[in-house]
Amino acid sequence: MILYEKNFSGVYLDENNEPNLKIVKHSQGDMYHIEIGIYRLTNLDDGKGRADFDVLEFVATDANGNPIEGEITFRNDTAEVTFTHSTWPLLKNGSKFHYVRQREAKADKEKTYLNAVEEYLTDEIRRHYTDGDICIPFYTIIDVDDSNRDDIKVKGDFWVLNYNLVGDTLKCVSGGNYPGQMHIRQSGDCFTVIAFDEVEDGSRFISSAKRIFANKYAKWKKVYSDEKSREKVRAASVAEYVKRHNLKATMYQDYGSKAVRI
Question: What is the C-alpha to C-alpha distance for residues 174 and 170, in angstroms, rounded to an integer?
Fold first, then answer.
């Protein structure tokens, strides 16, 4: 079941209209990756924050390599960054900086069943794996039956991958494949996953896949077996995520493999 929680992720503009506050929700819990830029003064690129209602408490590393702490408070589309514990002489305790959320042209688009798919993968399926800084799902939709708004059936080859951002590289730390059929309920413009029929592991893998995908089994099998095409879908999903969140990542990498340029 998806719960639509408050999410502070986004890009925020400073008073010079520069994108100097970037917030990305971790794939698990209430933790965030935070990058703070202060115009012509400094950049804090390794911030880690925890949400507490309308406040993010964070810790980062200052220009001298020492911990620096603060909090970010939110009111509508504005964010106020206050430094509460600083030993860096150019940032005194109590220093405040203001930012306004950047709105994209498509930011207010209606939710579709794909939003529900992505949120289910990041909110539910990723719990099966070791957590990372960032969760980036990707998938290939095999078939959609939307004849019943109370039970929209979405068959697909779904993947969840968790990454840690190390320098400019997204390093994959965990994840896996979850082919199956999601059942989604539509209420107005809200879509919620109410059930997920997963293809079973082991000896029942093929038989359960045939049962779930039915007359679309051959189509799914072709997608499932095509590693080259799957990597293209993954690469596009990573690139879109990095662009949407203005991350400084230029590559992603699996353990024991060469990094792939985004």
Answer: 12
